[in-house]
Amino acid sequence: QVQLVESGGGLVQAGGSLRLTCAASGSIFSISAMGWFRQAPGKQRELVATITSGGSANYADSVKGRFTVSRGNTKNTVYLQMNSLKPEDTAVYYCNANLRTTLIQRDYWGQGTQVTVSS
User: Fold this and answer.
1) pLDDT 10s per residue in the chain (119 long)?
2) What are phi and psi of 14, to 5 degrees?
3) Measuring CA to CA, which residue among 3, 8, 28 is closest to residue 114?
């Protein structure tokens, strides 16, 4: 089975930084892309940043210039470096991976990690 495990969330003051980590494990044949989504209370889940296996990154306009997504050396890990955090960045952050097992290729999700930015 496949698991995505996130870590690194927490409480930070506006202007501060946090780094999220997501590690994928299990019967993984290949990973096409990994990334991060977030969901604030009362709002829909939205894309934050994604990165392909080739290293091509995509960002939401609201985080460009402040957040950086990157892959680990093993390619089963994705990071989100968040700088200059704002109160509106407060949300549950979910790791996402589009990957192939021996049976299927589909999206998998982590359990989410809370990021709270105080003003």
Assistant:
1) 899 999 999 999 999 999 999 999 999 999 999 999 999 999 999 999 999 999 999 999 999 999 999 999 888 999 999 999 999 999 999 999 999 998 899 999 999 999 999 99
2) -55, 135
3) 8
Query: SS3 helix, strand, coil % of the chain, rounded to 5?
Result: 5, 60, 35
Q: In the 8-state DSSP scheme, what is residue 75? A: S
23 contact partners, CB below 8 Å, separation of at least 6: 4, 5, 76, 77
Task: Spell out the residues 6+ positions from residue 66 whose beta carbon is closer than 8 angstroms to its own.
Answer: 82, 83, 84, 85
